[in-house]
Design a protein that fits this description.
This protein is an alpha/beta fold and 386 residues long. The chain is 53% helix and 9% strand.
Amino acid sequence: MSSIYLRPQLAAEMAQQLLNPTGLDIGLRSGLFLSGLRRTGKTTFLRNDLMPALEAAGALVIYVDLWSDPQTNPAKLVHSAIRKTLEELATPASSLLTKLKSVKGADFGAFGFKFGFKLENVGLEGGATLAEALTEVVDQSKADVVLIVDEVQHAISTDDGNQLLLALKAGRDAINPRPGTPGHFVFIGTGSHRAMVSELTARRNQAFVGATSVPYPVLDHHFVQFLLNKLKNDGFSPLPSIAVTAEAFKTLGSRPEELIRALRQVLLNTPREKNPDEILPVIASTLRSAAADIELMKVEELGSLAQAIFDRIASTDGDARGVFSTEAATAYSKAVGREVRVEEIQPVANELLAANLIMRRGHGIYGITDPFVQEIWREKQIMLGS
């Protein structure tokens, strides 16, 4: 029995909607944005379900994870992934060309694509624009090109990232409206911060305003049943009921890894005479808080000023502004019990950024990177105040 829970039907339906949209789905050509909490299976679904489904339907798929290196400029990561794909397409008999050949039936594997520009300069000043490069790929492959950017909200944390999104929109607008275009450019962005991902399609100043933004379809009781069946096949007994396990899964934010941790504690550390349905809810509740505690411990390790800055950002509904203001310095001074100078704030904020605990949403605008951590932090503050 496979250890990976696959959702081929959902992936096939999404691929169909993206590549061969009906009149009701044609808006997806403007871009699709999926939002869901971290560690709920988004990347697993993208890599093991959606990407294979798109490729099986003849699309050329480029995947970039902005979470993989949060300290690197998001634009640099995307440019690098696109250039790597162009290099593979220009290499005779590359695995990418062979894959295209097997799906499209053309002799892509016998020769490489011929580009009229230097690949290393694509997207850079003086080089071919992303729109020009993507148009060439579509025209030569006669296939749809799908760019998937995981944790897309990081793109708007820098000016270069915002310019990148504008460049990708320009590629969409250069390719998709053409009469008789041999393929389309489809942009998919996923993110763990629902509000920020939604803003990418709602704010007038965003490149993909008007595109489709929907919640990521989290795993449900079918996954829970799959996991319990696997444990049964592995010889574990007694097992909690599917109803209690499904409720524990919701408590843990629909995070597969956390549910497996909870079940591991139940099955390995609970006496056989105990009813697992009575133990699992308690463990799930404990682990829910513990998952965020690991991140919050990082804040504590950075010191009292870091905690005060984190506190200010986490307690704000929406955007946190004035993090470096004189008023903020006065509040920090009260929190840490000593005078905090304005010039002290930026270096500590940079440490929080480097630890991926907070993220810059714009000039002087900050938010908590993981909404789940922010939720647990707020719950703890309420408990401390009660």
